[in-house]
Structure formats: structure tokens, C-alpha cells
Amino acid sequence: MKLVFATNNPHKLQEIKHLLNNSIELLCLSDIPCDDEIPENQETLEGNAAEKSFYIFDKYGLNCFADDTGLEIEALNGEPGVYSARYAGKERDSGKNMDLVLEKLSGTKNRKARFRTVISLIIDGHETQFEGIVDGEILEEKRGQTGFGYDPIFRPEESTSSFAEMTLEEKNKISHRGRAVQKLVEYLNHLKTD
Ligand code: IMP
Fold first, then answer.
1. Ligand 1 atom 14: residue of nearest CA
2. What is the percent of the chain where pLDDT is above 90?
3. Which candidate, 58, 85, 174, 192, has a CA 20 to 30 Å from the CA of 101?
4. What CATH code would you report for 2-193?
5. How far apart are CA 165 and CA 146, in angstroms?
């Protein structure tokens, strides 16, 4: 089955291709081709994921899915949440976003945080959502070189390493997106046999 993933983020594509089996041909936006600025105007991860997937389905009539992820920090009342990409400004600079988080948490004992991903899948116009969560903490400083976004300052509770100190395989096994994608893949596999 052909399925469009509404992204051109090479990190995400690589992560998800690792998890999908061969029966699904994964296309990205540049394959359709689509270079639109896809709207993300909602105030929840659920709303943004659905807005993106319906945009693609309505315009191209293709089965597709879109994801939206946020880092939710307990001591910051769930910030940066849906604003994770542009927390320190609209230039979407990961370094500045992490610096802002570290500054806001400076002197704060409660470092609890979680990544949450919502995937909105549309098959023949019918939407289903999947959620993946990984609990952890915000480190005192950046650690590691791999991954992207907030990976250097996030340590999942299952590990002593930050996400940026893990290989892609290690991160995928426990990550928010990995967990949401595993649910998506199980669902897709059932669709084929029903
Ligand atoms: P998006 O909705 O998946 O584009 O994620 C929004 C923002 O959350 C990204 O720009 C990153 O800053 C951050 N983010 C998403 N996924 C991850 C991840 O796996 N590791 C670290 N940061 C992430």
C-alpha cells in the first residue's frame, strides 16, 4: 500500500522507514510532489496532526498520515508543548530552544518531562489517531551528538543516556514517535488482513 507521510524531515522519515515493513511504500511530501507550507494553526497536538493530514488528503486524495510532537515539561505547566519547534522564536533554532528550556529550569528541582507524539492517519477519508509517550527528565546540560531537536537535553527514564547519546535503533525502541508508529503499524497490518 502507498502511504504519504506528510513531512520532508529526513530524520523522521529515516526513523519511520526503520519501523515499517516492506508491504507499505512510504512516500514523503516531495514525492507527491507538494511544497506547500502545510497549516499548523491548532492549539493541541491532536488538532495540528489532523489539520496536516486532512490538508494532504483533501488536496491530493491520497491515504496519508501526519504527526505532531511536543516536549511537555511538568515544572513549566506543559510548555513548550505544541510550541516546541518555535519555543525561542520563529526561526525554529534547536540550540536556542534548548537554551531557553535550560534557563527556565535553572535552579528547579522538578525536571520531569515527556515527549508526546500524536499521529493522524487518514484512510479513504476516515481518520484514526495514535499516541506515543516517553517519560523522562530534562538534564542540567546538553549531552550527545545524534538525533535532533531537544534530544541532547532529554533523558528517558529507561536509560542513563540522553536521546542524543543513543543510536537511532536505541532511540526508536523507546521513543514517543517509535511508540506511536508501532501502534500505527499494528493498525495498518490488521487493516490488510481484515
Ligand atoms: P514536530 O511536530 O514533530 O515537528 O515536532 C515539533 C518540535 O518538537 C521539533 O521541532 C523538535 O524541536 C521537537 N521534537 C520532535 N520530535 C523530537 C525528538 O524525537 N527529539 C527531540 N526533539 C523533538
1. 149
2. 80
3. 174
4. 3.90.950.10
5. 6
